[in-house]
Amino acid sequence: MKTSLLALGTAALLLAGPLSAASFVATTDVLVRGTVDITNATTRATAAVFGDDKVVLDARDDAARYVASEGAQRGAFLEAALVHIRGKLPELQADDGALAEAILML
Questions:
Q1: What's the CA dihedral at 72, 75, 76, 79 to 10 degrees?
Q2: Average model confidence (pLDDT) for the chain?
Q3: Residue 62 and residue 100: Cα distance in Å, rounded?
Q4: Exposed site from 15, 65, 79, 82, fewest CB < 10 Å?
């Protein structure tokens, strides 16, 4: 997740060079708010279905490790939870990072 935010920030910097500082701040705020909105929606959808699900709750340590390592460390509990979540909510369009963050917020 941090990598995508860094990429978004870098893109915003490159595009905002000739613009005023106020425009840059507004652009960055819109991008960050959009990312936060997606994460919040994923969390709400996940919490509504999996708030007391043992498979998902058992994955919290692995999810924390995954987020902290920016996706480099994937534990067995997290893998099981991702499969479980996607099986129950196939319409949910979220990447592994967003789901890991949603698991952490349960």
A1: -50
A2: 73
A3: 8
A4: 15
Cα–Cα distance for residue pair 29/27, rounded to 1 Å: 5
User: 78 with 62: CB under 8 angstroms?
Assistant: yes
Taking the chain, what is the end-to-end CA distance rounded to the nearest angstrom?
18
Structure confidence at residue 94 (pLDDT)? 87
Cα separation values, 79 from 2, 15, 39, 100, Å = 20, 37, 19, 10
Q: How confident is the model at residue 54 (pLDDT cuts 50, 70, 90)?
A: confident
Residue written as token pair 């959808």: 45
Q: How many residues does the chain have?
A: 106
DSSP string, 20-50: -HHHHHHHHHHHHHHHHHHHHHHHHHHHHHH
